[in-house]
Amino acid sequence: MKFQKRRANTKQEIPTASMPDIVFMLLLFFMVTTTLREVDVLVDFRLPEAKAIEKIENKRLISYIWVGKDKRMQINDSIVKLEDVQKVMYAKRQALPNVIVSLRVDKGTDMGLVTDIQQELRKAYCLRLNYSSTIKI
Amino acid sequence: MLKKRKIAEAAIPTSSMADIAFLLLLFFLVATVIDVDTGIGLTLPEFVEDITTVEVPKDRMAAVLINENGDVLLDGKPISVFQIKDNLKPRIISKIELPLNKKIIVSVKTDRKTNYNTYIQALDQIKQAYFEVRDEFSNQTYGVKFSKLDQEVQNEITKEKIPIIISLAEPESVKK
Prior knowledge:
heterodimer; A: alpha/beta; Nucleotidyltransferase, domain 5; five-stranded mixed sheet; two-stranded parallel sheet; B: alpha/beta; 6 strands; elongated
């Protein structure tokens, strides 16, 4: 009598065809859920161009001040008045002693306003400054 | 007896697709740069109530005045914005070997109505002058570009040989 080995007829395989789909699903999930901490810029501005520019290596230290075409100023998420700049920036400096203030000022602004902001920054002891500008080619 | 012909299954191996997806994902993770901030760096002086004025010898000063029309005066001589660099370079070079308290001070003064763009252009020219002098200096002494030097040597040049000293004067009407 011939013995026959018992063997299951089904294939012993994990279907791997759907693996990329799973990976893509994961990727998409993380893409959707991560928020790159970015603020909504409420002012309209166009940066000046310059050649001798430096990159700011430490992005964590940067704090932005936007100045738009209509001379409105924005810090964090809200429009601020010139008188409030000192108070807001001083609080920022206390939280982060070596804060770098990046001035994102519109091309067409008058220097008077920029100087006023600088005076406020000096009073708030935020002395490291960066005039944000794009590379001129 | 007729044998049934076995038909080979035509399939693309899909098990490696996941790896390909991961590779793609990793490549883009590494290669993406999220909005690097670039600009002209500067350090403001501390705020003091009563300003003590210090006399600075004339040959140390390079006064850049910009009026509201964008006209530039360098030490009383009217020039265009794009000439600032070439005018400053020889003056910076001549003071490389002098001690720190004899280095050139570039003073930038604007009007309240001066265009911000013009101011940045002028500042850019001044910075470019300094950067080019640094490059030339390191080329002459070390034979390589400034950016290729060791951090220590770079520090020595930026601190002792060619420090960037820019003084921002307040616009006229503020002082009144």
